[in-house]
Request: fold
Amino acid sequence: MTWLVWRLHRTQLYIAAALLAALTVLLLVTGLQMASHYHSALAACGASHSCATLASTLFLGSHTIGFLVIMTVGVPALFGLFWGAPLVASELETGTSQFAWMQSVTRKRWLAVTAGEMMLAAAVWGGAVSALVTWWSGPDNALQLDQFKPGRFDIMGIVPVGYALFAMALGLCAGALLRRSVPALAVTLAGFIVVRAVVTIWLRPHYMSAITVTYKLFSPFTPTGSYWQLAQGVLNPAGRVVPAPNGLAIDGVPIGSLPAACASAADGVRPTASCRQALAAFHGFITYQPASRYWAFQGIEFGIFAALAALLIAVTAMVVLRRDV
Amino acid sequence: MIEVQAVPEAAAAIRTSGLGKRYGRVCALSDCTITVPEGRISALIGPNGAGKTTLLRLLAGLTRPTYGEMTVNGGIPRQEPAFLASIGFLAQEIPLYRRLSAEDHIQAGAHLNPCWDGESVRERLTALTIPLDRAVGTLSGGQRSQVALALTLAKRPRLLLLDEPVAALDPLARRNFLALLTDAVAAGGLTVVMSSHLVADLERVCDHIIMLAASRVQLCGDIEELLAEHQMLVGPRKDTSAIERDHRVVQVTRTPRQVTMFVRRCGPVVDPAFQASDISLEELVLAYMGQDAPPALAQLTSIGDDQ
Amino acid sequence: MNGRSGDQVISFRVDGRSVAPPYLQIVQQVKQALRMGVLDVGDKLPTVREVVAATAINPNTVLKAYRDLERDGLVEARAGHGTFVRHRPPGPPPGTHSRLGRSLARWVAEARAAGLDDESMESLLRVALRAETEEEIA
Reply:
């Protein structure tokens, strides 16, 4: 059965291997360049004691490669579209599934080997791309500390493997239910985008309760490392969030929310002592997920998508094994 | 009620009892009770929509029955390698991978089947000058049918189920296909159930018949015995109640002067006014089909048209 | 598939349109071959597989025909070797057939000159055969 799966899909696997090889070469070369650029910049700023501003002055790599790396977020979807959706759908559509089923292969074994091996391939490929991107982003992550943010979180670590498994399972399930390649493709793409968006926007921020820290406006608090900022702003003495300053602010408090004591200060006059005292009752706040939770979040998100994949595979199995041909 | 010939338990390749299949509201097959002895080449005849494909798929285990029982090769059709290895099913749409060559399919078969005779496929196809290394999708319909049949035979099944295998073939391809099939049966140990519309071919090749019409079994038995049991009686128009009482009248045609009756005899017909003549397989089939649904007559191809 | 006789002495032809069932056609063709001298005592009949390959008929049909011939004493089956001709069917030697055939051809020419078509000739023959059978019974 393995022979047949290989023979049927070897062109696809060759193409994927070629693309992976090209990506590897590209990222290896540019990654090494970026690493050496970074290290020499570090050495230079160390000598001139200007490392604090390095993040905003140093740009590593090129815009094109950077864009390509960001686009690897779509790689799992590609697996789902090109490997997952047609796998079962085209066999049911053209009736070729009957060939294997009439060659002494039970439907269970057919599905297990076909789906299992292609999903494994997708996981391995997805993992390889993710490993490459993670390594390549090393200097950038050290510099910008933004690997926890959406967009970067999704292309590094272990979550891309979870996405790949999910996309494949979604494609297989859509193919088994719809029995036609093109509708299965459409459903897979739409489903993948919707689920990823829902998880990223509404679920991920709440995997663990976010930490909120309030601080005096004079001494803002910045969490260490690559934290993920969820919200930031100013609280009035009553504890309500004040609209963000989009214009003038005095000591961090926007003009529109100034207390009565600072009415004169709004016109440009230097704040009085009583105004200053009133302002001291205002606080700043930041809600964030600390950097230490990065791998926990990776694990949780991977678990969610792996569980979804398992559920979809179960549905696929039920449909294929029980349905009349 | 159809009288199915009594066959000893061990010798039946197929035995069904009250088999039925419903798809939602539509009844594809109802109350199907048939027996096919081993070693027969059985013709499955019926108009489109009569349930032929459904019956074949039920016997192959591709579809599960809504009710009823069946025994195929001594066991119940189920998803297990031993059963799957003992039957061969050739669907009407010839399920081969169009981008793979015949040789690829032979190798696939070797990997998938416990018992596989790939050499026989190569021999048969080479004898028919069908290329082994070209993609199957580039071959003609007749050549694809031959490849599919050769592959199905290579797994050495005990029962072969063919769904309209020669429908789209030209006369030469059809002859080659049937020669390949009969040769495999001559080699021994094979029972065949073949659905088709072409009565001429079936007469040549088949010795058993299962007739379906309106999703029900109309006839099931050895062709020779059925032909011997039926007669066409032609005589002057008169009272026929005696004959109708003693024998089973399948079809009656009356003109002002003459009456023609197609009967299934229970004993000899003694009325001297009637002239009895033997009937052909085509007449038998048409008479039983004409019972239920006259439009079904248009579905059959008569003898000679395709020769 | 057609015209492939190999080392067979006789090749069969099964006509789907004939009134006679396939097995009877084979029996008749063997008997005819014996009468005409094409098959002789000791000759081996084609194997079941050879006949089936050439005519695409049911193997049981061939078996049945050979069994009929064996019952009539014309052939005998030797296990593992095949089926061989044992006796010629009772009847006049091959020469008689050619002689009668020629005189029949003359009669046909005469009948046609008189204006009879094929069907009239056939029904004359049938009447004559039946009359002869009734005479024999009487």
